[in-house]
């Protein structure tokens, strides 16, 4: 289940997964515990929403052959990754929210969206006949471990002059590559096995 852990850790490298939460925690001056707790809770919701998407797709496409189902899910993942490109321009908006109450957290969670990269992984697990509890747990652990570290890093990094604007510009330019590369990597791993 190392693949699930690694997929969770890698997918959270996308800037829309950690920059908004790090900006939020930095703006509000949260301590390490509050930052870690909020990040973990938000990422838990992120993974659970991916699990809901999997459950809906699994039920809707139950009669489709396994190979076709996997191909459909990978194509869907790539399409969603392309749609995410529009989300990256909204990351900069997080800097203007300041202490906007719960709306700032809702904005960060909305930028995060569901963990759609979990879907092909679970479809492959379903094909093997194994349960999904261990892979989902491993994926969640990878997501929370890497995500919490990135948010904590970002929270501290924003105190350096010019780092925030440069990071936001880099996220807008290169951010969509991470989910697309992850989708490609999952496709290769899944098709090889």
The low-pLDDT segments are none
Dominant shape: elongated
Query: What string gives the helices and strands in order?
Result: HHHHHHHHH
Cα-to-Cα separation, first versus last residue: 14 Å
Strand tally: 0
Look at the helices and sheets and give the structural class.
Answer: mainly alpha
How large is the share of residues in beta strands? Answer: under 5%
Oligomer: single chain
Average pLDDT rating? 77
Main β sheet profile: none
Helical content band: over 70%
Helix run count: 9
Compute the CA-based radius of gyration.
17 Å
Write the layout of secondary structure elements.
Layout: H1 2-11, H2 15-28, H3 32-60, H4 66-88, H5 102-112, H6 118-128, H7 133-157, H8 163-174, H9 177-192
Helix pairs in contact: 1-7, 2-3, 2-5, 2-7, 3-6, 3-7, 4-6, 4-9
For this entry, give a set of tags.
single chain; 193 residues; mainly alpha; 78% helix
Produce a short descriptive summary.
This protein is an all-alpha fold and 193 residues long. The protein has nine helices and no strands.
Structure description:
The protein is mostly helical. 78% of the residues lie in helices and 0% in strands. It contains nine helices and no strands. The protein has helices at residues 2-11, 15-28, 32-60, 66-88, 102-112, 118-128, 133-157, 163-174, 177-192. Helix 3 crosses helix 6 (118-128). The radius of gyration is 17 Å and the shape is elongated.
């Amino acid at each position: 289940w190392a693949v699930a852990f690694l997929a969770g850790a890698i997918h959270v490298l996308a800037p829309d997964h950690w920059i908004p939460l790090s900006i939020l925690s930095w703006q509000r001056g949260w301590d390490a515990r509050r930052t870690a707790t909020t990040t973990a809770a938000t990422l838990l919701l992120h993974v659970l929403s991916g699990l809901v998407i999997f459950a809906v797709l699994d039920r809707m496409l139950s009669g489709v052959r396994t190979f076709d189902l996997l191909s459909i899910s990978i194509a869907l993942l790539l399409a969603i990754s392309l749609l995410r490109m529009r989300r990256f321009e909204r990351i900069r908006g997080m800097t203007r929210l300041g202490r906007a109450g719960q709306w700032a957290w809702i904005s960060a969670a909305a930028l995060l969206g569901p963990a759609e990269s979990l879907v092909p992984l679970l479809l492959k697990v379903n094909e093997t006949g194994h349960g999904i509890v261990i892979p989902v747990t491993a994926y969640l652990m990878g997501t929370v471990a890497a995500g919490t570290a990135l948010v904590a890093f970002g929270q501290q990094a924003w105190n350096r002059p010019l780092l925030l604007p440069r990071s936001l510009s880099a996220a807008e330019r290169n951010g969509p590559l991470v989910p697309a590369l992850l989708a490609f990597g999952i496709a290769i791993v899944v098709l090889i096995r």
